[in-house]
From TrEMBL:
Keywords: Hydrolase. GO terms for molecular function: hydrolase activity. SUPFAM superfamilies: Alkaline phosphatase-like. InterPro entries: Alkaline_phosphatase_core_sf, Phosphodiest/P_Trfase. Residues 490-516 are annotated as: Disordered. This is Predicted phosphohydrolase or phosphomutase, AlkP superfamily. Pfam families: Phosphodiest (PF01663).
Length: 529
């Protein structure tokens, strides 16, 4: 397949949450023939994710070539100085993505792309799209084409409904996978021969593995992924394109949940709102947030209806008055020194950043050191660590508004931020969760057959792809070009990386949508409390 000139096009095929060890094992055993072909004909290896290793950080890093402090997304929700939050959208992306640099481009089901952008090509938004009632495609008429072929097309599943019905869940995930495949084929037809970039993500493996971590059932699912890969391999061969198969992170089993905000409360760094005034009156009557929403749903008034009908500021204000265990609404910030929000993002409640901050900026470094020692001292009965802590300033050096620390579960432990009465608890319906190492496999006219990629990171995909098809790499990219991927006789292997300036993406847009369905889906996967 090799030649002197670079490939003309590139295709990124994303499989959310696929770990390298399963691909390595099953491709060597002959169970996944197309993954095996990718390894034989191209370059492959592990792909290091972001910290934390989560979807809303990692896919933007794959698409842009920069870490979160430059692309601007630290989770599913943006935390304000007033301790309120709103969903991140595509308007929050601060770094141009591959589809902003290459055209025509066709983008499908990539997380964090809602609302759709008016690119030269087509776009079908993925995770974080509120519902199919919204405009989720570009051009808009593509929506009608999708729904004519998939009348019951949905963005995602209502995961809590399947907590005790795993066989039905397996069928539902496979149906979702096939529907995404149909969408990909529609976009392929839309693209014709006139495209430079195709970027399509299948999130099904991540969703499946959160609830099911059984090797026989996983293999059956991965064989379906292998079929899709074979189809895309044929497509990229026909169009003289390099193919990059990536996952945003890996996966592994979990055995226990660790509630980090409880640890902060236990050690005097976090305080709950006291049940006085309105909260006290409601608490004395046995009224809690859960009891209220349950009662309303019994008479046909859902939380979704409340949020979609009332302004978010009013909903937040009322929620703060009702007793509960919410990591945002039930914290007394006027006494709290530190708290965790989102996927392990710990913030020092300092006076410059937050409206009710209590920690002076000069005290922040010492407090971070104290908290790092605290979390690293949390161990199981055998003395093994249950949490791992990383310094936000080291991870995100260009953004003063980044989290102060990242606190994640270690090995079989999963960190959560709900305020509870115990430091640990059972995993419930959750069988597995994210790991740091995903996959990268490359194949095409520019790629070296049988090459092994070492030390590849999510931010390396965009620079490597751009250089591989003869395009310049943004000057501020954090990633490097993976020269080990290229055939030594091809132009990309011997050509110096060309650099180009980038213009910051327009972030002036706003979205006033109801994201309740999105929040429910994220809660069902354990991503939110």
């Amino acid at each position: 397949m090799s030649r002197s000139s670079p490939a003309e096009r590139a295709f990124v095929l994303g499989f959310d949450g696929v770990p390298w060890r399963l691909i390595e094992q099953w491709s060597e055993e002959g169970e996944l023939p197309n993954f095996a072909r990718m390894r034989e004909d191209g370059a492959s290896g592990t792909l290091e994710s972001t910290q934390p290793a989560t979807t809303p950080l990692a896919w933007p890093s794959i698409a842009t070539g920069v870490w979160p402090d430059k692309h601007g997304l630290y989770g599913f929700q943006n935390l304000s100085s007033g301790y309120s939050h709103e969903m991140y959208t595509s308007y929050d992306m601060q770094q141009p993505a591959l589809w902003d640099l290459l055209s025509p481009a066709h983008v499908g089901n990539v997380p964090m792309t809602y609302p759709p952008q008016e690119i030269d090509g087509s776009m079908v938004t993925g995770m974080m799209t509120p519902s199919t009632d919204k405009e989720y495609t570009h051009p808009p008429e593509l929506k009608a084409d999708i729904e004519s072929q998939i009348p019951d097309y949905t963005i995602s599943l209502d995961y809590p409904e399947y907590a005790d019905r795993l066989e039905e869940f397996e069928v539902a995930v496979n149906d979702m996978l096939e529907n995404r495949r149909t969408v990909m084929n529609l976009q392929m037809a839309e693209a014709g021969d006139d495209w430079r970039l195709f970027f399509f993500v299948f999130t099904a493996p991540d969703r499946f593995q959160h609830l099911i971590w059984d090797m026989d059932r996983l293999l059956a699912h991965y064989k379906k992924l292998d079929e899709i890969l074979g189809e895309v391999m044929d497509y990229t061969e026909e169009h003289d394109a390099d193919l990059y198969v990536t996952s945003d992170h890996g996966f592994g089993p979990i055995e226990e949940l660790v509630y980090v905000n409880h640890i902060l409360e236990e050690e005097g760094y976090l305080f709950r709102e006291e049940d006085d005034g309105t909260r006290g009156a409601l608490a004395s009557l046995g009224i809690s947030r859960d009891r209220i929403t349950d009662a309303l749903e019994r008479v046909g008034i859902s939380e979704e209806l409340i949020v979609s009908t009332l302004p978010r500021s009013l909903v937040d204000s009322v929620a703060e008055q009702i007793p509960g265990d919410h990591a945002l609404y039930d914290v007394d910030y006027e006494r709290t020194a530190a708290f965790v929000h989102g996927a392990g993002c710990l913030y020092i409640n300092d006076t410059e950043r937050f409206d009710s901050g209590v920690v002076e900026p000069r005290q922040v470094p010492a407090l971070k050191a104290e908290l790092t020692d605290l979390f690293e001292s949390v161990t199981n009965d055998e003395g093994a660590p249950m949490l791992k802590v990383l310094d936000g300033d080291e991870l995100f050096p260009t953004d003063d508004g980044s989290p102060d620390l990242i606190v994640n579960g270690h090995d079989v432990y999963e960190a959560r931020n709900a305020i509870t009465d115990e430091a640990t608890g059972p995993t419930g319906t959750y069988a597995a969760s994210h790991r740091k190492e995903g996959i990268v496999l490359c194949r095409g006219p520019s790629i070296e057959a049988g090459a092994t990629l070492r030390g590849a990171r999510v931010v390396d995909i965009a620079p490597t792809l751009l250089h591989g098809i003869g395009e310049p790499v943004p000057k501020n990219a954090d990633g490097r070009v993976l020269f080990d991927a290229f055939d030594t006789e091809t132009e990309p292997a011997s050509t110096k990386v060309e650099r180009t300036g980038v213009t910051q993406s327009d972030t002036d847009g706003s979205v006033d949508d109801d994201f309740t369905d999105v929040e429910d889906r994220l809660k069902g996967l354990g991503y939110m409390e």
